[in-house]
């Protein structure tokens, strides 16, 4: 479950908070509109929501963290479910936001509806983009290919060369370290462990709340059509939309995705 596409933010302010000495970085696209927190998927970062932020403004103030171990946020000791949710709670507290709309893609979508299940009073509505409720039960981790990738190298070109066929997906997002070496915006082993721990049956979390929800499925995504239909049927006040896109639905079909989210938010 990944998002390998990035967009450069145009009008976002980057800030951070410290959680037990670990930096959690986020982008705040600003404005006086209602707060919407957007959570990216694996191998991604908050900057990928720049197009959506522009499409929703000024009615909505979009805030997009780099989730633990990705983008500008520090690596964490673990990538268990509760750790991601604790990060999100700390971010909302740091910003003084008592209630928000949560939008997530893939990993971020699962984090969003699991957070809502544990903190229902803090979530006004949910937007789930390609976040299944049952996945990976065959025990296969699709991120096995990551374990063959280098994390850092002496030069940018050396890192690109080491990435091989994966280079086109990450070349525009490589980071330069203070000592002049270069690294990926995530550690391959971290993301492998994180993917492993997001697998499971999450039906209880998905159906635990009844706030308004939008489920966005890509026709070539990871949620089977029958599962998406059941997700809409079994959870009250849930609207399902299907877009002609792959798993990276919000970057693969950005205008259609933004329109679907804007129409949903207008009903709140």
CATH topology: Rossmann fold
The CATH architecture is 3-Layer(aba) Sandwich
Number of strands: 13
The class by helix and strand makeup works out as alpha/beta
Question: How many domains comprise the coordinates?
Answer: 1
What can you see in these coordinates?
The chain has one domain (13-136, 199-265): Alpha/Beta hydrolase fold, catalytic domain (Rossmann fold, 3-Layer(aba) Sandwich). 32% of the residues lie in helices and 25% in strands. The chain contains ten helices and 13 strands. The chain has helices at 50-56, 81-95, 107-118, 156-163, 167-170, 188-198, 203-206, 225-234, 249-252, 254-265; strands at residues 13-19, 22-28, 34-39, 60-65, 100-105, 123-129, 134-135, 152-153, 175-176, 182-183, 200-201, 213-220, 238-246. The strands form three sheets. The chain has an eight-stranded mixed beta sheet, with helices on both faces. It has a three-stranded antiparallel beta sheet with strand order 8-10-9, with helices on one face. α1 (50-56) packs across α10 and α2 (81-95) packs across α3 (107-118). The radius of gyration is 18 Å and the shape is globular.
Summarize the structure.
This protein has 10 helices and 13 strands.
Features:
13 strands, globular, alpha/beta, disordered N terminus, three-stranded antiparallel sheet, Rossmann fold, 268 residues, single chain, 10 helices
